């Protein structure tokens, strides 16, 4: 189950962060999302070391914590998408397709002429579409 | 890692035992240690110590082994349940094999014992027999070493054979040691070492094989024996340094052990699991160590993950889950320490390929920091589980460690009760209940917090080294929370601050809120009132926009800051403002805040541009004008913004400028006027009243006032101080609207932003500073320039300072000469900085005042004069007075120059602080050459010299005129007035430079002596010429002719003006002797039709015979008789005359037939000049001459 998704701006500031748990760990998820930015930094700065190709937006598994797995995605405009899931067996292709849909929803949201680039995303439509995408993905 | 026994942590080392001949033991032991791999040795001095070999020295072990070893004999009544006895691994087995059970025994005998006396031989035999009887059952190898004292000692073959038979040894293993010489000894030692190594290897291999076969034979047997066998095989493989096999069997043991979970029934449930997990832990440790030392980092990490995954869920009793968490935490900690110590981490990280496909690994899983962090996390879980358990059950609380004497039992992972029965100590197996009591009492003894903090700190530092700031911040936050829980507030504050800084920087508001909430609690408990207010205000102004706690952050485990909601902000706002804006008498009524405040302790907050408190109070100040006149009113707009969630009313505002005289106060007229003069503004400053001063959240409060400044220069608004209560002030740095930066935490918020001022131009370009102009100068400075300046003269520039409304006090005149073309006043090419000449234009002096006698006497009048700069003090002038001086400037080169004159003065004499008024004047002056001097040489008329250099000019010679030696040449010097004004030329003369010049050349003035010495008036453009004769007397290629000296002055000026003398250097000439001179003889004029004689004299001036070819061209206007061309020989120092008769045919100036002479010797051809070879032909004989006479 996806428990948290986040959009992080290119100055590593949160633009959108939403958790989908009933439990009381939203703050913990914020910490996890924030820490995973370190991994993204490391991957982007040392592309050779980590072996990922820079041409790809999907960054793969960032960082396994105790109960979660964190996946990342980096757009051309250096906006980062981060997804936290509790599923331990996840196929990369599923995550990729999730991020592709998420990216499309993000593009729709920022294409709104009233949206100022670099500001937090407060669109309710975006929130709804992200909720739908999240609910449609259960990786197991 | 330290809690594991030593024998587990280090790789095993083969062990041998030495008997007899103790003299040699030290050197052998040392040698064996230095082997690669090393061998440990047990040394016994003689065979009487034989019994100590393989001896058990522990009483408890012996008794317990009797009670545990044989599960079938139920002899010991103390074990109530026979099925529970036994275990998987004996605790001391590994230690025994590393320190007690040798792989071989080496028996040392001196050679004379063997080959000498039969009684001694018998002793040897009996020693060997007793040794064999001990070691045979254990399969321990035997080596016999015969120690020879000298190499020549005789050896009896029979005895040797008997010895071998007795010892049942191959001849290989009966060694000889010769200790007589060092070289022999080292040779023997290395032989011994290799034999020992070989035998030890064989022993461990055989032991391994034996156990392996036993395991195969009894494969149907219980799993625990299988685990045991695998472990032993692996240990023996390790003894042999066969890491691959060791790894294989450790893994096999590990997997078999895992099967035991849930199947084994031997021990009570809790203890059973504890035993399995303890052994799994040790096996895992061995496997990880082997993998990491083999450089297989990826495999090690993958293995660890499998280990974690397979035991994560093996919790055991949920009631005592803390024990499981402790175990998990230890796994992570040990692995972190292993990773840290293994060098493989550093080298091979770059070559990692991110693990396997089914288990992808990420970068941070290769860093120990990750595992330290998780170890701390599990330990925290343990701590909270333990606390929960202790709080839930009364019995758990009552347990203390003293009650039972439970100790680790013989088997790994098992515990037993130590009972004392008289002298004998016995171990009893215990029930689960006893065991849990034991672990709870053990757990209570430890302070987990300190370990959690230590590990998290280690993780924090290591993340910092990896430049993973966010992970480090999280660790710092966790450390701080631990400290907070321990009530170590100053340490907690330190680490909270680290985390808060990063979250502030990156704008993670929810995380920042949490940290600030903790920090606020810290400062509250520390009693730091100012910190508390600052932190509260920062929290209050965070862009938290969610409305209810049940929304996004539905979190029951809030920090002390509570949920990050708008209502949370508002409640903190109210709390802090009731605290700071309290009335004096209300102080006692707020003891619950924990602050004990004195009535007169004012709170003052400074907010600068980088302060996190900036959103509390932003002050943007804009002047409406960029330049203002002194004493004129100027509008200034103050725009104030606050992000506080609730409106705030300000008592009064103070606006502070860099010119304190301009400071002013804005008072809220609804508030009672302050009686005390506590305001920092001086009395008498401007005070404005405003109907209400309320800061509404997110709305600019715009105030416009008019101010005026008396002082010229920059006027800048520095800060705005808001007084919010009797004791609370906030001072915010003023900002220009044009250069206002976004707030770091608010800039990403999606909200409507308004401009600080209504006028958009002011909002985008407004500045907090303006320039106050100087007062208008009311003094005139005039430069009485007259025309262009002439090079060489002292050009006079009158400067007049006349007061027209201002008196002049301590006036100063600055004079500057600046090259118009840029750069300095001297050219760098000819720069000789020390010489005065290097300045092309310089100020020679400044004449004092006219008509002001007292200033003449003042020596301080002229303060300072340099070549291009002058400073003159101007005497004090009353209104209407004037003062003037004359500036003398001299040009050395023609050059346009800019003259800058600036006068600075004080309009009011007395004020020391008053500002000077400045007047600037500038004038461009052209420096011109007054006279243009040129010169020309003329050779004697109708005498042509063969000057070889003229005919064949040397390549490097320029256009240097050549003069014949000892001949009188004519020099015409002309001076042309190149200015616009008339000049009076007084004299012109040529002066030779040096004495040698005078000897080498003779220059006379041409014309008659009685003539005027060259005095003339020259109108603009007019030219003056003077003729000199030059007779060079020395032959030299470069003859200096000296220079022309001119004396002149401006015509029409006053006659007192001095003459200016100008020098002009004449060019150098080439003087040479001419070998041939051709002179033409011809009458001064001819008459049409009348014949005349035209003679060409060729004069040879050399000592040589000269052959000359000549040719004469026909001329149209003459009839000619004589030879046209011929070659003549001219004798030395003689001349040859060619004589022609000519009859002119046409009138007027006619060209004579042209003669061309070619010197054969010099192969040089020359002609007379055209002017010289012409004659005027009259139609008839002229009469004028006669009439004149």
UniProtKB/TrEMBL annotation, chain A:
Top-rank lineage group of the source organism: Eukaryota
Gene3D superfamilies named in the record: 3.30.450.70
A GO CC term assigned to this protein in UniProt: cytoplasm
BP GO terms, sorted: endoplasmic reticulum to Golgi vesicle-mediated transport
Transmembrane intervals: none
Record InterPro entries: Longin-like_dom_sf (IPR011012), Sedlin (IPR006722), TRAPPC2L (IPR044760)
PANTHER family cross-referenced by the UniProt entry: TRAFFICKING PROTEIN PARTICLE COMPLEX SUBUNIT 2 (PTHR12403)
Family: Belongs to the TRAPP small subunits family. Sedlin subfamily.
Name used for this protein in its record: Trafficking protein particle complex subunit 2-like protein
UniProt organism field: Microthlaspi erraticum
Automatic annotation (TrEMBL), chain B:
Region feature Disordered, mapped onto this chain: 64-85
Domain Trafficking protein particle complex subunit per the UniProt entry, residue ranges: 272-541
Native source species: Microthlaspi erraticum
Pfam families attached to this UniProt entry: Foie-gras_1 (PF11817)
InterPro entries the record matches: TPC11
Residue ranges with Polar residues bias: 75-84
Protein name per UniProt: Trafficking protein particle complex subunit 11 domain-containing protein
